[in-house]
């Protein structure tokens, strides 16, 4: 399983790739759309890490 820092690195690499593809092919190209979806999923994965950590940190004692 990937850790949050690995996901952040992947997000940055994929963001750069999305920018490169958009420059070369235009925003309406299918390759750009695919890369955007990959980036969205990575961002969602990072947010799940973040949410789990916040949920864990905000837990109240049971007793």
Automatic annotation (TrEMBL):
Gene3D superfamilies per the UniProt record, alphabetical: Helix-loop-helix DNA-binding domain (4.10.280.10)
InterPro entries in UniProt: HLH_DNA-bd_sf (IPR036638), Spo0E-like (IPR018540), Spo0E-like_sf (IPR037208)
Protein name: Spo0E family sporulation regulatory protein-aspartic acid phosphatase
One Pfam assignment: SpoOE-like
Domain of life: Bacteria
GO biological process, one term: regulation of sporulation
A GO molecular-function annotation: protein dimerization activity
Coiled coil: none
């Amino acid at each position: 399983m990937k850790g949050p820092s690995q996901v952040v690195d992947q997000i940055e690499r994929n963001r750069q790739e999305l920018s490169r593809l958009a420059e070369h092919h235009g925003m309406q190209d299918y390759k750009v759309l695919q890369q955007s979806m990959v980036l969205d999923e990575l961002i969602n994965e990072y947010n799940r890490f973040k949410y789990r950590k916040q949920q864990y940190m905000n837990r109240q004692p049971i007793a």
